[in-house]
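re: the backbone from monday

yeah here it is again, tokenized this time
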């Protein structure tokens, strides 16, 4: 695993296969650098508010190929 200095990062993109992992990464990074721009890719729409509350500045929903209007 690369040695990453999250405290010095000005932006972080979180794109992992599981929303729980993305959430835990968001929670770990935010206290290290409160000014970091955090972008998170999530899969479940109901998690959007949770990520916004935890400090992700931008949250994107990944659709699974199904029509989101159905």
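seq for it, each position gets an aa:
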């Amino acid at each position: 695993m690369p040695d990453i200095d999250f405290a010095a990062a000005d932006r972080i993109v979180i794109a992992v296969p599981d929303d729980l992992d993305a959430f835990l990464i968001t929670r770990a990074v935010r206290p290290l650098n409160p000014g970091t721009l955090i972008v998170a890719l999530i899969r479940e729409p109901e998690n959007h508010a949770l990520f916004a509350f935890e400090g992700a500045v931008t949250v994107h929903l990944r659709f699974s190929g199904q029509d989101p209007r159905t």
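The first helix runs from residue 19 to 32. The chain has two helices and three strands.
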